[in-house]
Amino acid sequence: MATKDIQTWLTEYGESHQNKTNKAIHWVCVPLIFWTIMAFIWAVPAPAIFAEVPYLNWASLAAVIIVLFYIRLSIPLTIGMTAFTALCFFSIASLDAALPGKLVPIAAIAFVILWIGQFYGHKVEGKKPSFFKDIQFLMIGPAWVMAFIFTKLGIKY
């Protein structure tokens, strides 16, 4: 089976994101869901050996996997998603330091509310979320938002 290129992924994702309301909901919810998932991963206890390297935890390792996923699709989008992932990473670190013990409850509440928003958007759209077809669309959603930003800025992805 041939690997899809980034434009194929984005076009296929976009087919279930045509409605203006659904698009607006996704613009807010997709990046924030990404953030909540990174927060959950951040909260997973890391082995003591990780403490030897600043900021080495399960979230930083997940970030490497995320970058590897995107790099095979588009270098410019990889750069954008790496910057966004870093922003998430450091905002999570800051929140966790400022409000010890509150990261997971905050992320959990946000996660539930955001997914309610996502499913409402798809109800308005009248189409099922793309990830029901292929779980990889959970990673394409953030790239879809980033690709839109790139297009508005005149950056080829």
Architecture overview:
This protein has helices at 6-14, 20-43, 58-71, 75-98, 103-125, 137-153. The protein has 157 residues and is an all-alpha fold. The chain has one domain (19-153). The longest helix is centred in the first third of the chain and has 24 residues, at 20-43.
What are the main properties of this structure?
6 helices; about 160 residues; mainly alpha
Short description:
This protein is mostly helical and 157 residues long. It is built from six helices and no strands. The mean pLDDT is 95.
Number of helices: 6
What value does the average pLDDT take? 95
Order of helices and strands: HHHHHH
Number of strand segments: 0
Query: What structural class do you assign from the helix and strand content?
Result: mainly alpha
Helix fraction, binned, reads over 70%
Poorly predicted runs of 5 or more residues: none
- From the N-terminal CA to the C-terminal CA, the straight-line distance is 24 Å
Assembly context of the chains: single chain
Rg from Cα: 16 Å
The global form is: globular
Strand content: under 5%
